[in-house]
Design brief:
Blueprint (H helix, E strand, L loop, with lengths): L1 H11 L2 H32 L10 H17 L5 E11 L1 H4 L3 H19 L3 E3 L5 E9 L2 H15 L12 E10 L6 H18 L3 E3 L2 H22 L5 E10 L4 E12 L3 E3 L1 H11 L2 H21 L6 E5 L2 H5 L3 H12 L6 E5 L1 H5 L2 H13 L3 E7 L6 H7 L3 E4 L1 H4 L6 H16 L3 E4 L5 H9 L4 E2 L10 H10 L6
Parallel strand pairs: 4-5, 7-9, 9-10, 10-11, 11-12, 12-13, 13-14
Antiparallel strand pairs: 1-3, 1-4, 2-3, 6-7, 6-14, 7-8
Helix pairs in contact: 5-6, 8-9, 10-12
Bound molecules: ligand C2E and calcium ion (2 copies).
The site of one calcium ion has 4 residues, from loops.
Length: about 475
């Protein structure tokens, strides 16, 4: 075409005009070529994350698709895996120091690249990478390689950043065992990643049981949100008597119940951790606290003025900055006298930030609220820290109480716990007493209060009224 054009011009125009036109044409060609290069450069830029230089998610999707079709066509002799890696550890600390962060991110990606070659991509988050494990002989091979990656990411960085060490969570799913499509594989790698983060384990390979558990949990999450939105529909508070050595009811622990239309009764041990994770436990907690206090007020009004109520406080509830005001607000609005509300905290709750916890506990206690250390013996159980926290009551965990009359070791532990509590001026309460023999041992060894099925499980509000009115709990 070009030649045709110049040939035609040769016939019609003088030679210098033709030369000029040729020159302009060459210039245009040059220009065009440069533009094409720049377009390619821009395209490349658009396809890469500027901070890490890694190809972006869209390219990963396409590439995983190709890899899948290629492994499918070669039969089942090789496996293909995909991984989702999220940074942790010091990453959170340096996240906001922009420059250093960029270099270290880049270097981290580079370490992974040394192991998987070009099979690393940037996800939509800066701290998350997508991986393809191609042409692996078997699942062991995948795990081995994944281990190498975890190890490489978790090494200290070089000076001057040698005080920085990232950790990571890596979730893996493997074709054909955990899915045959891109969506399935990625979805399951994501579930493995969530599991990895939840349990603080750096490497998790998906399995079916994990999938079932995850989906069930998702269901509980959705349903719980709905229940809360619809005014705590299906949720109720039950009360379990706290009984002294003479069989007298001294108080009650408020325990939440959830009756779900389809799933039936869901144990708080299953849904409270979910509520905790999604931040809903604060609403539930406030609701329980208010209800429990109102119930206690009714008992007081009916003449049982010595009774107290004990309410569980979850870690994130305890963490609320305005916790003391909130609790004070509830007590005041219900019109309860001092010293009849006990809050139950676990060791994990107070150990997270001990100094703040101690200050908060003092504020609560100076308001007249009592504090109980729940599930004692299952956590850190360091005796020395206990003194600093000044709980009013020590709740000996059920695991030491069950068959305590038959187990020498548990007997020693319970005796030590009671002695220590006494030395620190704390009351003791044994949880989960189911048998007469357990009760006898506990009472003989100076335990102040017990709680358990021997006397009564947690009962609905109207039954609890009958229990309270009887004044004494009868061992069954
Ligand atoms: P927890 O605070 O240790 O509560 C005691 C648990 O032991 C209750 O289980 C109670 O029903 C059970 N129990 C009591 N006596 C016996 C017994 O003799 N034998 C046996 N085997 N079990 C006994 P539940 O009600 O399923 O509660 C489980 C956990 O859920 C509670 O453990 C507590 O941590 C949490 N929870 C319950 N209600 C609330 C709430 O309103 N707020 C918060 N944050 N957590 C709650
Ligand atoms: Ca409790
Ligand atoms: Ca407990």
């Amino acid at each position: 075409m070009d030649n045709e054009l110049t040939d035609h011009l040769q016939d019609a125009a003088p030679a210098d005009e033709i030369r000029e036109l040729r020159r302009q044409l060459d210039e245009l060609r040059d220009e065009h070529q440069k533009l094409e290069i720049r377009v390619a450069e821009y395209q490349d830029l658009l396809n890469r994350n500027p901070a890490t230089g890694l190809p972006i998610r869209r390219l990963f999707d396409a590439e995983l698709g190709h890899a899948l079709s290629s492994v499918r066509s070669r039969g089942r002799r090789r496996v293909l895996a995909t991984g989702l890696l999220r940074l942790d550890g010091d990453y959170a600390r340096i996240k906001n120091t922009r420059d250093r962060n960029r270099v270290l991110l880049y270097k981290t990606a580079d370490r992974i690249r040394e192991i998987v070659g070009d099979n690393i991509y940037q996800s939509d988050r800066l701290d998350e990478f997508l991986l393809i494990f191609r042409d692996m002989p078997n699942t062991d091979g995948v795990e081995l390689r994944a281990d190498q990656i975890v190890e490489a990411v978790s090494r200290f960085h070089e000076p001057p950043a040698d005080d920085v060490r990232f950790g990571c969570y890596l979730g893996i799913s493997i074709y054909p065992y955990h899915g045959t499509t891109r969506e399935e594989l990625l979805g399951n790698a994501d579930i493995a990643l969530i599991e990895s983060e939840r349990n603080g384990v750096p490497l998790v390979v998906y399995d079916d049981e994990m999938g079932v558990r995850y989906r069930e949990r998702e269901y509980i999450e959705t349903e719980l949100k709905l229940a809360i939105q619809s005014g705590f529909d299906g949720l109720d508070l039950h009360y379990q008597p706290l009984v002294d050595g003479n069989g007298r009811i001294r108080g009650a622990e408020a325990l939440i119940r959830w009756d779900h239309g389809e799933l039936g009764r869901i144990s708080p041990s299953r849904f409270i951790p979910v509520a905790e994770e999604i931040g809903a436990v604060r609403f539930i907690g406030q609701w329980s606290l208010y209800r429990a206090c109102r119930q206690l007020k009714q008992w007081h009004t009916a003449g049982y003025e010595d009774l107290y109520v004990s309410v569980n406080l979850s870690p994130s509830q305890f963490k609320q900055v305005d916790l003391v005001e909130r609790i004070g607000g509830v007590i005041e609005s219900v019109g309860l006298p001092e010293r009849c509300l006990t809050l139950e905290l676990t060791e994990t709750t107070v150990m997270e930030e001990p100094e703040e916890a101690i200050a908060k506990m003092k504020d609560l206690q100076s308001m007249g609220v009592r504090l109980a250390l729940d599930d004692f013996g299952t956590g850190y159980s360091s005796l020395s820290y206990l003194r600093r926290f000044e709980f009013d009551t020590l709740k000996i965990d059920r695991s030491f109480v069950t068959n305590v009359d038959m187990n020498r070791n548990d007997q020693e532990i319970v005796r030590a716990m009671v002695a220590m509590a006494k030395a620190f001026g704390m009351q003791t309460l044994a949880e989960g007493v189911e048998r007469r023999e357990e009760l006898d041992f506990l009472m003989e060894n100076g335990c102040d209060l017990v709680q358990g099925f021997l006397y009564s499980p947690a009962v609905v509000q109207h039954e609890s009224v009958a229990l309270v009115e009887s004044g004494f709990a009868r061992a069954r």
